[in-house]
Write a structure and sequence with these properties.
two-stranded antiparallel sheet, mainly alpha, Serine Threonine Protein Phosphatase 5, Tetratricopeptide repeat
C-alpha cells in the first residue's frame, strides 16, 4: 500500500495520546496507551471498544479503531466503523485510503473505485489512478483500464512510484513502469505477444531493476521461441510430409 497507510496512533499525533477520559474510562485509556507502546493491536482494539462504551460519539476513538481493524485485515468491523467516521467532520484521506483498499480486497469494486477516485480528486496523487486501472482490469474492463494506463505511461513528468513484490520483500518502481507492465498483461490476455513485449521493454527502460517485468520478459521470450520452433517444425512437416524426411 501507499505510505498514507498509517499506524492508528497517527490520529493522536497532535497530543501524543488519547483525550482525557472519565474516571470509569481511565483504566481503558491506560490500557490503550500501553498496548500502543507495545505494538499490541488486538489489545488496543479491546481498549478502544471499552472507551467507546463510555463515549460512543467520540470520533477520535472511532478513527483509531477503524484504522486498527483495517490495518489488521478485520475488514467488516473496520468498514462499519470507518463509514461512521467518514460521515462526520473527522473524515480524512488516510482513513479513506484504508477503506478503499479494504473494499478492493473484499471484492466491492465499485466502492473501491469510488474511494480511489475521491482520493485522486482530493490529492492529485496519480497512484490512485493506477489503482483504479488495476481494479478495472481485474473486473474485466481492460479497455477502460488501458486508457488510464496509457495516460500514466506517457506522462514522463510523473514521479510517483508503485510497490511490487520482489524476491526479497518488495520494491518500488516508477508509475510509468507499473503502467507499462499492466498494459503488457492486458496485451497478453488478448494474445498480442509482440505488443506485450514492447510494453515490457518500456517498463524495464523506466525501471531497469523491475523484477516482475524481468521475469515476465524471460517467460514471454521463452514462449515466443517455443512457438517459432513449433511453427518451423510444422512447416517442415508440411514440406516433407508427416512420415518424416
Amino acid at each position: 500500500m501507499l505510505a498514507a497507510i498509517l499506524f492508528s496512533c497517527n490520529a493522536e499525533k497532535e497530543t501524543g495520546q488519547l483525550p482525557e477520559s472519565s474516571d470509569s474510562g481511565t483504566s481503558a485509556s491506560d490500557l490503550y496507551e500501553r498496548a500502543r507502546q507495545l505494538g499490541d493491536d488486538q489489545t488496543a482494539i479491546v481498549a478502544l471498544n471499552t472507551l467507546l462504551l463510555q463515549d460512543s460519539s467520540n470520533m477520535r476513538y472511532k478513527d483509531s479503531l477503524a484504522r486498527l481493524y483495517l490495518r489488521n485485515g478485520q475488514h467488516e468491523p473496520g468498514l462499519k466503523v470507518g463509514a461512521e467516521v467518514m460521515k462526520s467532520d473527522w473524515g480524512n484521506d488516510a482513513l479513506l485510503e484504508l477503506i478503499a483498499y479494504a473494499h478492493e480486497v473484499t471484492g466491492e469494486s465499485d466502492k473501491a473505485i469510488s474511494g480511489f477516485n475521491e482520493l485522486y480528486n482530493s490529492t492529485k496523487n496519480v497512484s490512485y489512478r493506477y489503482e483504479v486501472a488495476k481494479i478495472k482490469y481485474t473486473i474485466g474492463e481492460s479497455s477502460e483500464a488501458n486508457v488510464i494506463l496509457k495516460e500514466l505511461a506517457d506522462n514522463k513528468e510523473l514521479t510517483e512510484r508503485i510497490e511490487f513484490l520482489a524476491q526479497e520483500g518488495t520494491q518500488k518502481v516508477t508509475i510509468q513502469a507499473a503502467a507499462n507492465f499492466l498494459m503488457a498483461q492486458i496485451a497478453l490476455d488478448r494474445n498480442q505477444q509482440s505488443t506485450a513485449m514492447n510494453y515490457l521493454r518500456a517498463a524495464l527502460a523506466s525501471s531497469p531493476d523491475f523484477q516482475q517485468a524481468q521475469y515476465g520478459m524471460q517467460q514471454l521470450q521463452t514462449l515466443m521461441q517455443q512457438q517459432r520452433e513449433q511453427r518451423e517444425l510444422q512447416e517442415l512437416q508440411r514440406k516433407y510430409g508427416g512420415g518424416g524426411f
